[in-house]
Task: structure prediction
Amino acid sequence: MKKKIERAEFGRVLDPEFATEYDRHFTGNDGLSAKRRLRYADFNNCVGKLENDALVLDLQRDGASLECVPQALGLPNDWELYEKLRVTVEAGAHDLKVHLNVFGRGGRLRIAEDVPAGMEHTLELHLGPLSLVNQSRDPSLPLYVCETLRLLVQWGDSWPSEAALHISDDIWPATVNNPPTVLTIKTIELVPYDGKRDVVVIDRYGQQKNTGVADRIRCDQDFIDERDTESEELKKMSPPARWNKFGSLSDDPAFEATGFFRVDQDAGGRWWYVDPEGQPHWAIGFCGVRTADPMLIEGKEQLFEELPERDGPYAAAYEPLIRPGSDGRRKFMPGISFYGWNILRKYGSREAWAERVLERFRVWGVNSIGNWSTDLMVEQHTIPHTRALMARLDDAPKVAKRIGDAFTTKWADEFDRAMKKEAAPHKDNPWLLGYFVDNEMPWGGLYKGGIFDCDDDSPLRDAFVKLAAERYNDVRDFNKVFVTEFPDWDAVRRIRPDQVPQDGDGVELMHDLAGIFAERYFSEVRRILKKHDPNHMYLGARFVRGMPDRRIVEAAGRHCDVMSVNCYSLWPHEDQFGTWYRTGGRPIQLGEYALPIESAGTLAPPYPTFPLDLTGQLFREMGEKWARQPWSLGFHWYTHQAAVGKIDRPRQPMVDNLRYIAANAGTWHRGL
Result:
């Protein structure tokens, strides 16, 4: 029996039942689980009404949208049997661009088409790649689920890209001059397959099938031809002028040379890395210089046109996906790295790939290799590099499931053993900038109760009781503030996270406790790290951009050589990062920075993306704005594959603007 077309019921989307809020979970641009607060039917900058069985949106400003779960339209949420989503609309008095998005758990499908004023138009979004959108996490979950769908409308001249809606305060003016207009949604339909569906959506090179991309890789020989052509092009290029072997400014006034990297201020108060020869160095580079970008394959093998033999010449392309589990321990899931497979086909070995990457970096102006990079990149002596360490050890006590409990001797002993193995062997390496320890830990949530997600016997609880007893005369005063009924201080010691007040005087006590914990954590990490490697810098804990309580940042500043912060805004705002610097007192390395790139044939993430040419322009602007801040030390773009894609083909706008930044960063940072 043939499956019938499913048509949306617009009356449901206006039902108050669907105006309630929920948390929609998705995979963020850092690969971690994130969530966004939505209504089940969310009218953003527009008002909906029914007219003649159609849904009319009165659009109040550019970027207005309707986003809703399928149930709010009377549609199923599993779309495995449907070939396409078909939406028929009619524009009002203005030309419109209508963006149709279908969101899954790890990304989205989308199209955007122009609708002339007064005209009817049908958008058709093919749903085969929906299996990729839901491909990234749990192999037991359905592959063709639609979490939400969104119709977003653009008109006027003030919104040059999808991403501008989210960053207009940074660079583009608000869209106040665009007059209100109307979009009529006549039908939303799920159209079933007419015949047998082809479930294969990824070809043997990791590219989406049937995307119409003209320059796609079609055979192995294409790789060889591109490799040889690039070899000739690289011979014609030179590293930035005035750089020494470390990528430092060779003609600038020198600092004291110590034989290792350190940080210092020049006569104008501007911070620099100082290389082993005493020359000023401003770091430009990539995170994630590695061969792995695995996709989940368990139970999903049918999606792929071809996979390598597990015991064949390309077996190294199989890589595990590593994700944090709910218990704080790392989870390993089977995956395939098409980038890893492609570079083996292109170069023959990972070692030959690494030689090509380093050759590129030297002439592109990359003088620093960041976190999450392969051993081949942190064992070479051609380009300065960092190493990634973790104080969150699987078998050691933790706070908030992710931060090592530095109050416990078990954690200290485990971290000491780890540093003896992971830091001590590198203490004499002049090419090592230093060590990042941990990444994006939940510092901001400790005061809300996360700090008590620790072992019952942790001395951290004793520190809390001591602090509370000093603050309050007796337990009765404590109970009034925390709205609890503890009979004595011993019972207070066993406090649970859900007993922590979220407002009132108790919040200040919790901030103080978080500060005490941060002091212990950063001082112990430094002590143990420096015990095994006294020569290299402690580059910090890679905070997220939103600054936690000042007590945590002050503690980090007392013990870290560098404050590392990951920033995914359009650029690192001077006022915000100035606050980081004034609070912590240490210069700042951007541990991660990126603008998600929009490219044909690539699965769109759930967050906004930028056209490649615009990405290059904004990349250049970011480089100058960040370099001109006196406390900046450099940036690492997340990740290396952003510059080369899954098929290892350099994206020229990225390369050109990277070279421009490298040629000018020293001048900008000197304030010239």
Q: What stands out?
A: Confidence is low (pLDDT under 50) at residues 28-32, 166-175. DSSP finds 17 helices and 32 strands in the chain. The first strand starts at residue 6 and ends at 7.
